[in-house]
Amino acid sequence: MFESAEIGHAIDKETYDAEVPALREALLEAQNELKAQARFPVIILINGIEGAGKGETVKLLNEWMDPRLIEVRSFDQQTDEELARPAAWRYWRQLPAKGKIGVFFGNWYSQMIQGRVHREFKNAQLDQAINGAERLEQMLCDEGALIFKFWFHLSKKQMKARLKALQDDPLHSWRISPLDWQQSETYDRFVRFGERVLRRTSRDYAPWHVIEGVDPHYRSLTVGKLLLEGLQAALKAPTEPLHQSVAPLGHSLDGKGLLDSLDLSQQLDKDDYNDQLVAEQARLAGLLRHKHMRRHALVAAFEGNDAAGKGGAIRRVAAALDPRQYNIVPIAAPTQDELAQPYLWRFWRQIPARGKFTIFDRSWYGRVLVERVEGLCSTSDWMRAYGEINDFEEQLANAGVVVVKFWLAIDKDTQLERFEAREKVPFKRFKITDDDWRNRDKWEQYREAVEDMVDRTSTEVAPWTLIEANDKRWARVKVLRTINEALEKAFKKDK
Amino acid sequence: MFESAEIGHAIDKETYDAEVPALREALLEAQNELKAQARFPVIILINGIEGAGKGETVKLLNEWMDPRLIEVRSFDQQTDEELARPAAWRYWRQLPAKGKIGVFFGNWYSQMIQGRVHREFKNAQLDQAINGAERLEQMLCDEGALIFKFWFHLSKKQMKARLKALQDDPLHSWRISPLDWQQSETYDRFVRFGERVLRRTSRDYAPWHVIEGVDPHYRSLTVGKLLLEGLQAALKAPTEPLHQSVAPLGHSLDGKGLLDSLDLSQQLDKDDYNDQLVAEQARLAGLLRHKHMRRHALVAAFEGNDAAGKGGAIRRVAAALDPRQYNIVPIAAPTQDELAQPYLWRFWRQIPARGKFTIFDRSWYGRVLVERVEGLCSTSDWMRAYGEINDFEEQLANAGVVVVKFWLAIDKDTQLERFEAREKVPFKRFKITDDDWRNRDKWEQYREAVEDMVDRTSTEVAPWTLIEANDKRWARVKVLRTINEALEKAFKKDK
């Protein structure tokens, strides 16, 4: 993997000086075009051997291009806000918006390689991290991002010479490399595990570029040209990514569906409801202040037919709690800032810290429901969303977040009754819009989308719960009970 | 101040039950109107005596209204990200957007009263904090926010009884009040300093409401009605706030202006430039990695005539540094999310943590420059901006942020030369837009705005530096030298 980056590549000063002006001009032009199109972000990952010119190269890129459109992010120590959330949160919060370039020093690769080098975990866990990185990058590319991955390399001999030179240079001595790099074993392990990582994560959509770091002219020119070529190609690409033709999702041949199998006639009488509601609310209040909750967070996503009673169910959940513990996030059309980011960014923004509870009133499932049915995204966009969402929820679960997801189901007649009732009550009229009536006409399409969604995203770590919601009392109690059971199950596992 | 909140106000259950349904309905309607107008945010500050029903009331408001449009924020321990920035940053980052309601538990008032009660500082500092709060609220109200300030009160006897009752209640015993409330002296000091704070911060635009907290019916109904009345009045108010007629800014009678007094002929020859540039860059690099920098952050704001060379000067500053240390923020038209917040919010977002450096390419001064000249805000908006900006910068300075501000000045002929030169170079053409030519026609209006700006916002803590920029070399070196001197001055004071 690294052989050809240890052979002493070099470019003489004259060639360098002759080539740089045109390269700079072209890079600047590409950068302005990137900003003007504002169609995709550029993410540059910087990794490799200590002393191989990572920092110098990034500095140079900032000089060559317009630094106002480059965001350089270094990920050192996690802050306490980052430590209280899933590991990827720190990267999501720093993603560059469309039209910008983000340079990530100390990204997910350095984190996993460092961890393995220092024996914090074994290869099996390294491979898990590798798979996670692959899925993240695949998703970012599918969302349009252009990713460059640079590995700056030095042979062991070159590195030792370089560290020595840096140490002797008064302008650099303040930046003495971490002590462990002085050790021969660190280099060996770093290269060994680096090789494993590069081998598995070099993909057509985000290949690694291994750059020999000894000669500054060589490495600078190489990086600059790779960037330029990649940028120009992406800027010329058609506005819409070319979609592979997508095979349709199969459906059950006997016409039976999951939603049909629900017994919507289930109900609770008023007394049972009052007793059970109070009991479940007290149980939830107790669970959320349980000491185990310090290791967990709670996320509840509410989806359902229009007028199925999401708002009412959410209010019954909230009523159990101290308002300082929870946060309700209503999901509407994305804002400008949100549209400039990958689809899941707006949800990552809202992920609760440990000990907290976030309720999503509609959720990331909009991608495979309304966006699918209304044609707001392409078929391949919503098709790949199933996997992306499963990844997202698995990351939450791995970080101790308990994820519960509800589909509140009513039948078509019940919906009609409720629409008509709402239109009669002045202060409820705002709840019914033309959109609701239009959605109703697409009842069958939504049913299909819901069934596909549940089939593909009901997982062990984040199962769907279908709620029979023709009877609001039944629905509210079942929602609360489901949350309570999920928390108790998670707490039990802690022991 | 608190006398009438110790007389045992109470409302019987029947009256309460009879009044609540209509109140709830009206509150819900007002809340929906608030969301529909999305014209202003509502900020509810919750303060007062322990056990007086603060938490219960907020919980009730969440039940009565639509909790999806209420954001409850509690400010307990500062996170390390908050501790690394000016104190107010934590409040700015949690401000509700227009159309939303934000409930602030543990806000600036609790912080200052707690501090004084526990003898962390004396009255003089308390009064400074009070003045800061006043200015913050004045600004929020001028930006359209509707602020409610509730003080929940109990007499000492009532409080003791209440704490006892809470302790005996199994449903509440988990929430035993902080130990210090058990002490009689804490109550006395809390009430004494609370009285001082309320007395000085009850203003027409944001008055305090003292609520006796003993009887839940009384306090709930009182708060609900106050909220409703305030909301309804604000929703009915004309879209544009009524502006007091604003006295014009006076100008010097002899026609002499600050910008005329600049000697724009100053220049540096190429050799001097190269020497001095390299020297100042090295000095800056050294200062930013100086150990004193750990206590400071650096903010540089660049303003200037179009084509005055802001971008070039910023690049020369950046070139001195490791890209991980700085962040360049180009200021363009505000996004949707930014428009939903007070004017200064987008700049607060970007305030660097200690040890870091943020460069603003254009800045908050847009308010008194382009927005003033182009009529993008009302006269009273930009008139009050001078004071708001001085407050903002003083807060930065008090937190150790070194603030430097540059106006890069060129004359009209030089601008014309540069515009024409840019239009000839293909990869610079993007830098010239129709806007630039239009701005040029308003040269005199901009000159007036700049002179007013410098007169009113060049302060000891954040002085303006006018840069003679006809000669780019002169300008770049002066910019770097000014930053270096400001840092050295700040470091000297640390000793």
Describe the structure.
The structure is a homodimer of 495-residue chains. Chain A is an alpha/beta fold and 495 residues long. The first copy, chain A, folds into two domains: 3-236, P-loop containing nucleotide triphosphate hydrolases (Rossmann fold, 3-Layer(aba) Sandwich); 259-494, Rossmann fold (3-Layer(aba) Sandwich), CATH 3.40.50.300. Helix content of chain A is 50%, strand content 13%. Chain A contains 19 helices and ten strands. Chain A has helices at residues 13-37, 54-64, 80-83, 89-92, 108-117, 123-142, 156-168, 184-201, 216-236, 270-288, 310-319, 336-339, 345-348, 370-373, 379-398, 412-424, 434-441, 443-457, 472-494, and strands spanning 42-48, 70-74, 101-105, 146-153, 208-212, 297-304, 326-330, 357-361, 401-409, 464-468. In chain A, strands 2-3-1-4-5 form a five-stranded parallel beta sheet, sandwiched between helices. The first copy, chain A, has a five-stranded parallel beta sheet with strand order 7-8-6-9-10, with helices on both faces. In chain A, helix 5 packs antiparallel against helix 6 (123-142). The longest helix of chain A is centred in the first third of the chain and has 25 residues, at 13-37. Chain A is elongated. The first copy, chain A, starts with 12 loop residues before the first helix and ends with a helix. The model of chain A has no long low-confidence stretch (mean pLDDT 90). At the A-B interface, helix 1, helix 2, strand 2, helix 11 and strand 7 of A face helix 1, helix 2, strand 2, helix 11 and strand 7 of B. Chains A, B: Residues 11-235, 267-494 form the Polyphosphate kinase-2-related domain. Chains A, B: This is Polyphosphate:AMP phosphotransferase. Chains A, B: Keywords: Transferase.
